[in-house]
Design a protein that fits this description.
With about 250 residues, this protein is of the alpha+beta class. It has 2 domains: about 35 residues; about 210 residues, no CATH class. About 20% of the residues lie in helices and about 30% in strands. The chain is built from 4 helices and 13 strands. A hairpin with a 5-residue loop joins strand 3 and strand 4. About 30% of the residues are buried. The N terminus is likely disordered.
Amino acid sequence: MKTRRYAPIIALIICFAAVSIAPAYSQKTKRDHRILVDTLITNSRGEGNLIEISFIPGAEHNHPLFAFWIEDTEGNYIQTLYVSESIATGVFKFGDKSSGRWQPGEIERPASLPYWAHKRNIPNQKGTYMPTAAQPVADAYSGATHKAAFVLLAYSDKVLNGKFRLLAEINQSWDWNTHWTNNKFPDDKDYFSSAQPAVVYEVLIDADKPGTYELKAIGRSHHSGRSGELFTDLNTLTTALEIAKTIVVKLK
């Protein structure tokens, strides 16, 4: 009898609690969504065009490395728009194990983003093309690796006229598959740090026609970074093609 007597009161309390919690939950959801979509601005003092790049991760996204850059229609390098901080500085979070524990340290990983590195064509003190702590990419063009979706607002150094190409190179360590196995090149330590080669994306943009453009995969880099060759056969890649879902560029 007592349970029946208080049933309306209990129901009222439950309804009130639900109404009170709903807005808070909604706000938390929105807040979490904002956290997941990072925004990064590079080369803010650039005197050229504002290029907005929106990256949506795919199902296999797991802390990849990135480079975005522009070339002319003949494939000549113009400038870097963004490169992951560890590549730009030559210092990786897990780069030094001399103390018995992983610590940040200098390390060269030529298989990470070799197509971009060779296109940039700036030799380091070792004679290779990866940036190092002694010869880093300027801070204005780099940033921490994003954990999920992000928007990159990049300014070109100079005003872009006519058509140009925007490229991206993406790589993720230890993403082995049945073709790119961990014993495919047993004596190649550079390959071992990469697994499936980096994927290269491209889109042709007309600076005189501001709008939206989508990058498409056009090839893969050398598996150990020993050359700047682009291999257009993507049949051996699997999860590497699912790191990115979409990469969209807006020219303003």
